[in-house]
Specification:
eight-stranded parallel sheet, about 20% strand, alpha/beta, 2 domains, globular, 16 strands
């Protein structure tokens, strides 16, 4: 009996409580994803420390905690409880929008044609360099708030629209300030090798990153001023080649950063093979990955962060999600939110993954929870509803969890509560009104 012990939150009588994992799995491959752990008529308890204390059948939890006191109790009858979603790839810090480039793409211009004409990343770099730290923080907080309301409780946030040391550090400081000022988990990524700065060659940019950016980053990490988790490089034809990518990633790894980079997006670059060799935690995009690269990633337990929004908006061929799953790759999902792929919603990302990449709904949910957490090195604390993990979760106003994917664009009226560390961060007043329709 738990006695009169105080707890933060009790969720009672959920129609479905989707654990995702039930045996502390750090990730789910295909077979595991297709057998998601799920309880019916279930309850969950979150303690004052923000961690899950109990998950189980409602009558068992009620008996065990009958004399406990809770700061809040939510009746989840007829509703579903799921882990908070994890967005494993975003570029949310920037100034100046690129809506005009969407019109160019619709008229037939390719991504690299826009980039080589001075648009794309370089356009955003110009505006981001001019923006103040406070201006960037205000827009980042607004964007993260929209992600939170769409169900994301852990988000990877990249720099990369500075390309010079001062602006990259400005972006990383903004991410650090957001981490401390908004109730959403953040995994911070240094992406100074997002493009080759104007006036430099790729080799000169690589040398600058290794000799100047990374030593400064190490200094700021050691002082506690900035917390950075990952290092990213855009390994692409006409950007950073395989050898430059190798040098930067290895230098980042040497200062304690996880390797988590862009690869094999527009051209086959053997990025997957390189990532597997270097012990990368994750590689994103992979529209042009080789068969050998897929096998190498599976063996190395290197997550594939697939971005169906990007392939959709740029009219690229879809990543080979089915082949990756069948070969045993750990498949994760991200929104790739950026000026070129303006999507905040992981429910919409999951829907696109199912329709365009032929993933099952179970596979998509695993990819947006436990596997996305694994891609960020955080699946020990996030991505499933298990005792000891952080109490980040969603309550949706439906008796079947699949509605979160099935209702394309419907999350705004479907997500009832977003909870972080057992605290209700967002309560959707529209949700109850819509439930009678």
């Amino acid at each position: 009996m738990a006695g009169r012990q105080r707890h933060r939150l009790l969720l009672e009588n959920a129609e479905q409580l989707v654990l995702v994992c039930g045996r502390r799995e750090p990730y789910l491959r295909r077979d595991g994803a297709n057998g998601l752990a799920l309880l019916r008529a279930a309850s969950l308890v979150v303690g004052l420390d923000g961690c899950i204390k109990a998950v189980g059948q409602a009558d068992v939890i009620r008996n065990e905690f009958s004399e406990a006191t809770f700061e809040r109790i939510i009746d989840c009858s007829g509703k579903c409880v799921l882990p908070g979603l994890v967005d494993a790839h975003t570029h949310p810090v920037w100034a100046g929008d690129r809506v005009h480039e969407f019109a160019m793409k619709l008229a037939g211009a390719s991504y690299m044609e826009i980039h080589q004409a001075g648009g794309g990343i370089h356009f955003t770099v110009e505006h981001t360099r001019k923006a103040t730290e406070d201006e960037l923080l205000a827009t980042l907080q607004q964007r993260l708030g929209r992600m939170l309301r769409a169900g994301s409780t852990l988000v990877e946030c990249k720099s990369g629209y500075g390309l010079d040391l001062d602006t990259e550090l400005k972006m990383l400081r903004v991410i650090e300030r957001a981490r401390k000022s908004i109730d959403i988990g953040i995994s911070s990524t240094y992406c100074g090798a997002h493009a080759v700065p104007k006036g430099k060659t790729a080799t000169e940019a690589t040398d600058d990153i290794i000799n100047n950016h990374l030593p400064k980053l190490k200094e700021l990490k050691l002082s506690g001023e900035i917390h950075v988790n990952n290092i990213d490089v855009f390994c692409e034809k006409g950007v950073f080649d395989l050898e430059s990518t190798r040098r930067i990633l290895q230098a980042g790894k040497d200062i304690g950063l996880q390797i988590n980079f862009h690869g094999d997006e527009l051209h086959p670059m053997k990025s997957a093979e390189l990532g597997a060799e270097l012990g990368a935690r994750a590689i994103s995009h992979l529209e042009e990955v080789s068969d050998e690269g897929i096998v190498a990633m599976a063996r190395a337990k290197c997550a594939a962060v697939l971005l169906p929004t990007t392939a959709y908006m740029l009219r690229l061929k879809q990543p080979q999600a089915r082949k990756m799953l069948e070969e045993g790759v750990i498949v994760a999902l991200g929104s790739d939110f950026n000026p070129n792929a303006y999507c905040f919603s992981m429910p919409m990302v999951m829907h696109l993954a199912c329709v365009n990449m032929k993933m099952s709904m179970n596979e998509a949910l695993a990819a947006a929870t436990i596997n996305a957490a694994y891609a960020l090195g955080k699946s020990d604390t996030h991505g499933s509803l298990e005792v000891g993990k952080q109490g980040d979760l969603l309550i949706i106003n439906s008796s079947r969890w699949e509605h979160l994917i099935y209702q394309f664009g419907g999350h705004e009226a479907l997500i009832n509560y977003v909870i972080v560390k057992g605290k209700v961060i967002y309560e959707n007043e529209r949700c109850e009104a819509m439930s009678s329709y």
